[in-house]
Amino acid sequence: MLGLIGRKVGMTQVFDDRGVLTPVTVIKIDPNVVVGARTEEKHGYSACLLGAEDVKPSRVTKPYAGQFKAVGGPKRYLMEMRDYEKEVSVGEALGVDVFKDIAFVDIEGTSKGKGFQGAMKRHGFSGGRATHGSKFKRGLGGTGMAATPSRIFKGTKMAGRMGGEKTSVQNLRVVRVDEDKQILMVKGAVPGPRKGIVIVRKAIKK
Amino acid sequence: MDVIKAIEAEQMKDQAEHFRIGDTVQVHFKIIEGQTERVQVFEGLVIAFQNSGISRTFVVRKISYGVGVERVFPLHSPRIEKVVIVRKGRVRRGKLYYIRDRVGKAAKVPELIRKKTQ
Question: What pTM, to 2 d.p., does this model score?
Answer without folding.
Answer: 0.85
